[in-house]
Amino acid sequence: MAHEENKLKLYSYWRSSCSYRIRIALNLKGLEYQYIPVNLLKGEQYTPEFQKLNPIGYVPVLVDGDIIISDSLAIFMYLEEKYPQHPLLPSDLQKKALNFQAANIVCSSIQPLQNVSVLKYIGEKVSPDERIPWVQSHIEKGFDALEKLLKDHAGRYATGDEVSMADLFLAPQIHGGIQRFNVDMAKFPLLSRLNEAYNELPEFQNAMPENQPDAPSS
Ligand SMILES: N[C@@H](CCC(=O)N[C@@H](CS)C(=O)NCC(=O)O)C(=O)O
Asked: How confident is the model at residue 1 (pLDDT cuts 50, 70, 90)?
């Protein structure tokens, strides 16, 4: 059993979809890690200690010995090379590109628009009532594109019958769309089907927000 000090450390927040991506990757690769909660609602991302790890003040951050990496995409690529067990990128070039494209729709065209700081800004500068419609419109735009992008390539999972990178980015976004932002998934039959497949996998279940040590108990 890995000693606590030798373990990977993941700075995470239970409801953070970016952290959730990495929790799935770590689980699929069978890597034990120490979970270090950062309460985004209490502003713990702005403390000098945390900003030393990630100057932009976002989770997730992964610490592997002397190596500190922030940003889920960078962490994912690092894990994929350093811990090649259970590869999450297909070798087929077209499929690989499709994985990058789907992951990037989530991580650059959907998630940044629903971030805590963005919603706080909209709530203060526009109106609290505008926050959910704003997020819903951007999630739906992205989901619409993802449905079209993946429809000729999906198998049991997003780009075939093996779990791959795209699934790690899609599952948290779909989960958040349903649980936090009340997105009508009837419009997205492929993503709904993928979500059912994700929900059956223990590595995905264990990574869900509600199963994290810092999730509220009720
Ligand atoms: N591109 C970064 C984005 C990280 C990010 O936006 N993290 C969110 C949680 S999912 C966060 O820490 N938000 C804090 C804030 O908005 O103050 C990644 O993929 O890791």
From this structure: very low
